[in-house]
Amino acid sequence: MNENQDGKSKGFYQDISRITVRGLSEIALDFNAFYKELSLRVHPALTNVAEKDLPEASDQLYAIIETTEQAANRIMDNLEAMQQEQNGIQTGLEALVAEAGLPSAAQAQAEAVLDQVKSSQDRVMKIFEEMSFQDLTGQRIKRIVTLVQAIEGTVQEMLVSLGDRFTREEPGTERKSEEEPLLKGPQKSGQGLDQSAIDDLLKSL
Prior knowledge:
Blueprint: H1 2-98, H2 104-130, H3 133-167, H4 180-184, H5 195-203
Helix pairs in contact: 1-2, 1-3
Protein backbone atom coordinates (compact mmCIF):
# COMPACT_ATOMS: atom_id res chain seq x y z
CA MET A 1 0.00 0.00 0.00
CA ASN A 2 2.76 2.38 0.95
CA GLU A 3 4.78 1.45 -2.11
CA ASN A 4 1.75 2.11 -4.29
CA GLN A 5 1.25 5.50 -2.68
CA ASP A 6 4.93 6.30 -3.01
CA GLY A 7 4.80 5.42 -6.68
CA LYS A 8 1.79 7.63 -7.22
CA SER A 9 3.43 10.50 -5.34
CA LYS A 10 6.61 10.11 -7.35
CA GLY A 11 4.66 10.08 -10.59
CA PHE A 12 2.70 13.13 -9.49
CA TYR A 13 5.83 15.11 -8.71
CA GLN A 14 7.43 14.02 -11.97
CA ASP A 15 4.38 15.28 -13.86
CA ILE A 16 4.52 18.56 -11.99
CA SER A 17 8.24 18.85 -12.76
CA ARG A 18 7.70 18.18 -16.47
CA ILE A 19 4.89 20.72 -16.68
CA THR A 20 6.88 23.32 -14.77
CA VAL A 21 10.07 22.86 -16.79
CA ARG A 22 8.14 22.85 -20.06
CA GLY A 23 6.33 26.04 -19.08
CA LEU A 24 9.53 27.75 -18.03
CA SER A 25 11.30 26.67 -21.18
CA GLU A 26 8.51 28.06 -23.35
CA ILE A 27 8.64 31.33 -21.46
CA ALA A 28 12.43 31.44 -21.89
CA LEU A 29 12.17 30.79 -25.63
CA ASP A 30 9.41 33.39 -26.07
CA PHE A 31 11.36 35.96 -24.10
CA ASN A 32 14.52 35.18 -26.04
CA ALA A 33 12.65 35.74 -29.31
CA PHE A 34 11.16 38.96 -27.97
CA TYR A 35 14.60 40.14 -26.87
CA LYS A 36 16.04 39.55 -30.34
CA GLU A 37 13.10 41.32 -31.98
CA LEU A 38 13.51 44.22 -29.60
CA SER A 39 17.18 44.52 -30.50
CA LEU A 40 16.33 44.72 -34.19
CA ARG A 41 13.76 47.46 -33.63
CA VAL A 42 15.13 49.57 -30.77
CA HIS A 43 18.78 49.78 -31.76
CA PRO A 44 18.16 51.30 -35.25
CA ALA A 45 15.61 53.70 -33.78
CA LEU A 46 18.03 54.94 -31.13
CA THR A 47 20.77 55.22 -33.73
CA ASN A 48 18.54 57.42 -35.88
CA VAL A 49 17.67 59.62 -32.90
CA ALA A 50 21.30 59.99 -31.77
CA GLU A 51 22.86 60.50 -35.20
CA LYS A 52 20.12 62.48 -36.98
CA ASP A 53 17.18 63.77 -34.96
CA LEU A 54 18.92 65.28 -31.92
CA PRO A 55 21.83 66.88 -33.84
CA GLU A 56 19.33 68.29 -36.33
CA ALA A 57 17.27 69.72 -33.46
CA SER A 58 20.37 71.41 -32.04
CA ASP A 59 21.24 72.85 -35.45
CA GLN A 60 17.71 74.19 -35.91
CA LEU A 61 17.75 75.84 -32.50
CA TYR A 62 21.11 77.45 -33.19
CA ALA A 63 19.71 78.67 -36.52
CA ILE A 64 16.77 80.25 -34.67
CA ILE A 65 19.16 82.02 -32.30
CA GLU A 66 21.24 83.33 -35.19
CA THR A 67 18.23 84.45 -37.26
CA THR A 68 16.50 86.26 -34.40
CA GLU A 69 19.76 87.90 -33.34
CA GLN A 70 20.36 89.21 -36.85
CA ALA A 71 16.79 90.50 -37.09
CA ALA A 72 17.08 92.17 -33.68
CA ASN A 73 20.31 93.88 -34.70
CA ARG A 74 18.67 95.25 -37.87
CA ILE A 75 15.73 96.55 -35.85
CA MET A 76 18.08 98.23 -33.38
CA ASP A 77 20.01 99.88 -36.21
CA ASN A 78 16.79 101.26 -37.72
CA LEU A 79 15.59 102.50 -34.34
CA GLU A 80 18.87 104.33 -33.76
CA ALA A 81 18.57 105.95 -37.19
CA MET A 82 14.98 106.98 -36.44
CA GLN A 83 16.06 108.41 -33.10
CA GLN A 84 18.73 110.55 -34.74
CA GLU A 85 16.26 111.81 -37.33
CA GLN A 86 13.71 112.65 -34.64
CA ASN A 87 16.33 114.53 -32.65
CA GLY A 88 17.11 116.62 -35.74
CA ILE A 89 13.42 117.34 -36.35
CA GLN A 90 12.92 118.26 -32.70
CA THR A 91 15.86 120.68 -32.80
CA GLY A 92 14.50 122.38 -35.91
CA LEU A 93 10.97 122.68 -34.53
CA GLU A 94 12.20 124.09 -31.22
CA ALA A 95 14.17 126.75 -33.12
CA LEU A 96 11.11 127.53 -35.23
CA VAL A 97 8.83 127.89 -32.20
CA ALA A 98 11.35 130.18 -30.48
CA GLU A 99 11.70 132.42 -33.56
CA ALA A 100 10.32 135.92 -33.03
CA GLY A 101 7.60 137.23 -35.28
CA LEU A 102 6.25 133.79 -36.25
CA PRO A 103 2.52 133.96 -36.94
CA SER A 104 0.48 132.52 -34.09
CA ALA A 105 -1.18 129.91 -36.31
CA ALA A 106 2.18 128.68 -37.62
CA GLN A 107 3.64 128.66 -34.13
CA ALA A 108 0.70 126.62 -32.80
CA GLN A 109 1.09 124.14 -35.63
CA ALA A 110 4.84 123.86 -35.03
CA GLU A 111 4.25 123.22 -31.32
CA ALA A 112 1.71 120.47 -32.15
CA VAL A 113 4.18 118.78 -34.49
CA LEU A 114 6.89 119.10 -31.83
CA ASP A 115 4.63 117.30 -29.33
CA GLN A 116 4.07 114.50 -31.86
CA VAL A 117 7.81 114.16 -32.40
CA LYS A 118 8.41 113.89 -28.65
CA SER A 119 5.65 111.27 -28.38
CA SER A 120 7.25 109.34 -31.24
CA GLN A 121 10.61 109.51 -29.46
CA ASP A 122 9.03 108.01 -26.35
CA ARG A 123 7.68 105.11 -28.42
CA VAL A 124 11.11 104.50 -29.90
CA MET A 125 12.60 104.34 -26.40
CA LYS A 126 9.95 101.81 -25.35
CA ILE A 127 10.78 99.69 -28.39
CA PHE A 128 14.44 99.77 -27.35
CA GLU A 129 13.40 98.49 -23.93
CA GLU A 130 11.18 95.76 -25.39
CA MET A 131 14.03 94.55 -27.59
CA SER A 132 15.59 93.04 -24.48
CA PHE A 133 13.41 90.00 -25.23
CA GLN A 134 16.04 88.93 -27.72
CA ASP A 135 18.65 88.36 -25.02
CA LEU A 136 16.21 86.44 -22.82
CA THR A 137 14.98 84.33 -25.73
CA GLY A 138 18.51 83.54 -26.83
CA GLN A 139 19.49 82.47 -23.32
CA ARG A 140 16.47 80.19 -23.02
CA ILE A 141 17.05 78.60 -26.39
CA LYS A 142 20.69 77.99 -25.49
CA ARG A 143 19.53 76.20 -22.35
CA ILE A 144 17.27 74.03 -24.49
CA VAL A 145 20.19 73.28 -26.80
CA THR A 146 22.27 72.25 -23.79
CA LEU A 147 19.46 69.94 -22.68
CA VAL A 148 19.15 68.43 -26.17
CA GLN A 149 22.89 67.83 -26.28
CA ALA A 150 22.76 66.16 -22.86
CA ILE A 151 19.98 63.88 -24.11
CA GLU A 152 22.04 63.16 -27.23
CA GLY A 153 24.97 62.10 -25.06
CA THR A 154 22.73 59.85 -22.97
CA VAL A 155 21.29 58.19 -26.06
CA GLN A 156 24.77 57.63 -27.47
CA GLU A 157 25.80 55.96 -24.20
CA MET A 158 22.71 53.75 -24.46
CA LEU A 159 23.70 52.85 -28.02
CA VAL A 160 27.16 51.82 -26.88
CA SER A 161 25.66 49.70 -24.11
CA LEU A 162 23.02 48.15 -26.34
CA GLY A 163 25.52 47.63 -29.14
CA ASP A 164 27.80 45.66 -26.83
CA ARG A 165 24.89 43.61 -25.57
CA PHE A 166 23.46 42.85 -29.00
CA THR A 167 26.67 42.23 -30.93
CA ARG A 168 29.24 40.91 -28.47
CA GLU A 169 29.89 37.18 -28.88
CA GLU A 170 31.29 34.96 -26.14
CA PRO A 171 32.23 31.64 -27.79
CA GLY A 172 33.58 28.72 -25.80
CA THR A 173 31.38 29.24 -22.74
CA GLU A 174 30.07 25.87 -21.61
CA ARG A 175 26.92 25.34 -19.61
CA LYS A 176 27.51 24.07 -16.09
CA SER A 177 24.21 22.19 -16.19
CA GLU A 178 21.20 21.67 -18.39
CA GLU A 179 19.05 23.77 -16.07
CA GLU A 180 21.36 26.81 -16.02
CA PRO A 181 19.97 28.51 -19.17
CA LEU A 182 16.54 28.67 -17.57
CA LEU A 183 17.99 30.54 -14.61
CA LYS A 184 20.03 32.94 -16.73
CA GLY A 185 17.08 34.16 -18.79
CA PRO A 186 17.44 35.44 -22.38
CA GLN A 187 20.84 34.79 -23.93
CA LYS A 188 22.68 35.98 -27.02
CA SER A 189 22.51 34.17 -30.30
CA GLY A 190 24.09 30.74 -29.94
CA GLN A 191 23.97 30.84 -26.14
CA GLY A 192 20.25 30.59 -25.38
CA LEU A 193 18.18 27.53 -24.60
CA ASP A 194 17.33 25.59 -27.77
CA GLN A 195 14.72 22.88 -28.29
CA SER A 196 17.22 20.00 -28.08
CA ALA A 197 18.33 21.17 -24.64
CA ILE A 198 14.71 21.30 -23.55
CA ASP A 199 14.06 17.76 -24.82
CA ASP A 200 17.16 16.42 -23.05
CA LEU A 201 16.09 18.09 -19.85
CA LEU A 202 12.60 16.62 -20.02
CA LYS A 203 13.95 13.13 -20.74
CA SER A 204 16.13 13.28 -17.66
CA LEU A 205 13.09 13.66 -15.39
